[in-house]
Amino acid sequence: MALEIERKFLLSSDTWRGLVTQSTLYRQGYLTPSVQNAKASVRVRVEGESGMLNVKSVHMGIQRHEYEYAIPLLDANEMLDTLCGSIIEKTRHLVPIGAHVWEIDEFHGDNAGLIVAEIELGAVDEDFVRPEWLGMEVTDDARYYNVALVNKPFNTWDGRLAAPE
């Protein structure tokens, strides 16, 4: 069984930008746009020149089931264009800190202005270096998950970066 152990944070400054080692444009959509009563989301993503299909349990939190498969780029683009509703576009920046690589997603379009840092861990209680640019943790705030941003983009939020509801 594939498990993803991930924590999400907002950022307190832009000082991470000088540490970026790689940036990739992502375009993604969901074949299951509404997760109400669903057990999983099914995402199609184009990562640079690669296509991916992802199935992830909808349970929010640090640990979730996740399965990811490479698919032909042509198929991924066709699915995004014909089978998915709203599309999320973002640039993923990689920032190595200590033993981990932070994935910092800078959103575009209807989610412009939102930047979220994620770290994948090997265990729920694993220690990790907390860089000075790390802000409030939002792992348990469903609004910050991509599957939620498709239906309620960041530019529609009241008090955009307010504490979790």
Fold topology:
Layout: E1 3-11, E2 22-30, E3 40-47, E4 50-57, E5 63-71, H1 73-82, E6 88-97, E7 100-107, E8 115-120, E9 134-137, H2 146-151
Q: How far is the N terminus from the C terminus?
A: 31 Å
Spatial order of strands in the largest sheet:
1-5-4-3-2-6-7-8
CATH topology category name? Hypothetical Protein Pfu-838710-001
Average pLDDT number: 91
Number of separate helices: 2
What structural class results from the helix and strand content? mainly beta
The percent range for strand residues is 35-45%
Which architecture would the CATH scheme give at its second level? Beta Barrel
| The CATH fourth-level homologous superfamily | Hypothetical Protein Pfu-838710-001
What general form does the structure show?
globular
For the biggest sheet, the summary is: 8 strands, antiparallel, barrel
Along the chain, the helix and strand elements come as EEEEEHEEEEH
Tell me the domain tally: 1
Low-confidence runs of at least 5 consecutive residues:
none
Number of strands: 9
Give Rg in angstroms: 15 Å
Helix content percent band: under 10%
* CATH class placement: Mainly Beta
How would you describe this structure to a colleague?
- The protein is built from 2 helices and 9 strands; from the N terminus they run βββββαββββα.
- The chain is mainly beta and 165 residues long.
- It has one domain (3-156): Hypothetical Protein Pfu-838710-001 (Beta Barrel), CATH 2.40.320.
- It has an 8-stranded antiparallel barrel.
- A hairpin with a 2-residue loop joins strand 3 (40-47) and strand 4 (50-57).
- The N and C termini lie far apart (31 Å).
